User: What shape does this take?
Amino acid sequence: MIKVSYFRLFAACVYELLLLIALWFIAAWIFLALFGDATHSYKRFFLQFFLWLVTGAYFVWCWSKSGQTLATQTWRIKLVNQAGTTLSVKESIVRYVLASLSALVFGLGFVWIFIDKDQLYLHDRLLKSRFVAVNKN
Assistant: This one.
């Protein structure tokens, strides 16, 4: 397996963020059209939770279907499990939850990549998954 450079991982993350912003705008528009103003009280929490679920659905679907989101396809990177195959739905859900927790702890699970000997995020280390380079077709 070919290691993926920090640059390609970072570039894919930036591209992913741009795609997620568009997804969040659409999802928030749908939520607000259905439930109205969500700037106060419990509606704000439910909007945030809804956006987290929509984001999770996007990642779980992409990771379990092909191992690639649009951003990782562009940068020719694929997420695989220890056996070198696409993650199952269960593995994808666990990865999304672990990655969410990594982000909540000041992003430490993502910074882990710089101290890990195999250049893995902490959630990938725990799940035994990794990003690999994909050959041109």
User: Anything to note?
Assistant: The radius of gyration is 16 Å.
